Amino acid sequence: RATQYTCMLLSYLIEHKADKEKLVMKLKQLESSMSSGRKMFRLGNMVHALAAARRTTELPDVVPRFCLTASNLARALYFVCDAVLWLKSIGLQPDVDKPKWRNWATKCYYFSLLMNLARDWYEISWRLEQAVQEAKTKENSFWDKHNQELNCVKCDGLHIFFSLLFQTLKRHPPLLLDLVKNLCDLSGPLDTLGIYKTNPGVIGFCGVLSSLVGILTLASPHLKLKQ
């Protein structure tokens, strides 16, 4: 995935430079190969998504339970559409309506990301509320240290909110990384569905950043946001 989006980003950056046509073509071919390879590697992910959905239905908190279950079910549908597109690409299902299935896949992926972001915002809101209570009661040494910044009467509400948000995300790296990854992944569906058009450079950069976050959470599992 990181290789695919790196190729997309590099080809966008150098496509207008002279004498770079062959390199751009090679980068686009490699990007296409990586995309096809990823579709094949994802063939079993539908089962994984359904198993994850079953686990999340047992979460005690209703909001994460709903958001994560809906996200995993949408991802399962996305993987079904993705498998159909892969069958089309290798010639086993030549009659498949590729634009229609790609649109369905993108919508499922988009909905899954929205549910993930809703869960992230719920976690942030809950922790912000905790931070406010800690700042008021002065029971936490961290908030005592930043008491002047957080409770300054001269500061407007927006400044206090962003200050609390910054400190909350700083104290919870898994939540920050999950938020960054979901926001970056959102660029592709937004562009494909025509909701917010960008360009391959932006999508490539966001894809690389999202992939690096994914690699980091795999290398350091404690940085992955727990369900």
Automatic annotation (TrEMBL):
GO terms for cellular component: peroxisomal membrane. It comes from the Eukaryota. Its main location: membrane. The chain crosses the membrane at residues 201-219. It is found in: Peroxisome membrane. One of its GO terms (biological process) is peroxisome fission. The keyword Transmembrane applies. Pfam families: PEX11. InterPro entries: PEX11. Keywords: Membrane, Peroxisome, Peroxisome biogenesis, Transmembrane, Transmembrane helix. PANTHER family: PEROXISOMAL BIOGENESIS FACTOR 11 (PTHR12652), PEROXISOMAL MEMBRANE PROTEIN 11A (PTHR12652:SF22). This is Peroxisomal membrane protein 11A. It comes from Cariama cristata. The lineage of its organism: Eukaryota, Metazoa, Chordata, Craniata, Vertebrata.
